[in-house]
Amino acid sequence: MSIWKICFGMCMLPLFTTCTKTVDHAWRNDITIINSFNQEVNIKLYWSLTTFKIPAGKSYVYRQESSDGPHLDFDDSDSIIVTFFDGKEKIDYNCSDKAVESVVKDCSKDTVSLFNSFRYTTIKQSERNYMNYYSITQADYDEAK
Known about the structure:
Layout: H1 3-16, E1 27-35, E2 41-46, E3 51-54, E4 59-62, E5 65-66, E6 79-84, E7 89-93, H2 98-103, E8 121-126, E9 129-136, H3 138-143
Parallel strand pairs: 1-9
Antiparallel strand pairs: 1-4, 1-5, 2-3, 2-6, 6-7, 8-9
């Protein structure tokens, strides 16, 4: 087969194929962390190794997409370290992660946690789009060491 026939065939291929639109069925689950405490905080997520700072009185939006529903898991992070400006820090664990649950004793008893859905205000913006709000407060600081 000559090179011209191959080139002609490749050029004509788009004319004979049908176009299909790809629909993304991802869930959008944005998490806004509001620093209501009087110190800057540094947050580090484990698995993704994402870090960000939130000055006192400011907020940070963590954009999270999922294919299987709205979860407050920070893209499957197993833990989050919150470090306050004065050096005190706390570790919140994702207790729904089976590996964490088997290692961290009484994991689910930590009620002041970025993984605890009861600490959030959640607003459904559309069928697959949620906005979640968490406030870092004195309770978070009191848990820090």
